[in-house]
Amino acid sequence: MINKLDHLIVAVEDIIEAESNYSKLFGANPVWRGEHKELGTINSIFNFSNTYFELLATKGSGLGADLVNHSLKENGEGLTGIVLGTEDIKKTKDHISRQGYKLGTSSEGQGEDSENGKLRNWNNLFLPQELTRGIFSFVIEHTKGKLDKYENYPDTSINKLDHVVINTNDSEGFIKTYRDVYGIRLALDQTVEKWGGRMLFFRLNSTTIEVIAKDDEKTPNDTLWGLAWDVENIEKTYERLIKEGFDITPVKEGRKPNTLVSTVKSNTHNIPTLLIQHLSS
Asked: The whole model's pTM is what?
């Protein structure tokens, strides 16, 4: 079954510029720079304690380049995909198929680090539109090779993904897909009377999929919106980013009790970005 939010995909026009911006934001360099020759893309990957973050740009032609070009044309730079992880892609496929969804065969993929020649292999399972609901999404099982991990996370750097925000116009359909089909735990379901909507919180591998629902009668459609990153010391992180030239709001108390937050307003390549520190209660 699906047991993690494996990684996030971000489409960018200039990967060198984007890598520079995110190295400064994260307080760390990428652990992988690679190329998918058959897909026509190059990538730069930052690894965290609970997921990884992939910058993706075109180099040549292929299905990957088509995806990036389409995303850039329609939406500009920003969040493009969310990838769900499994330890056994065959069991995951069988589970989803038993619920009436028609799936194709899984496909093998390989990436090579352009700096050291290391290889990683994986299997992908692409999902039908009834499940992706407007978001580029698929399931992945890593089969060979691993991304390097940072030896430590300084208290001025980002250490993990706190949550990803998704907008939907079909809350019940979202629950059916993510809880009932994918098997992801729905930790909280609440109505927000202030703006007449609904918020859903799904939990897996120490992160949250936060869903903002404003239901209507249109075709179900989900869209990726923004990210919140966990930091150990938000005041020190704020000071570091100010020195790096970021436009960032002063630290303040968050809506959630025992949290401090700050919003990064520049150099995120169109991704709404929040920093959050969870204080000990």
From this structure: 0.95
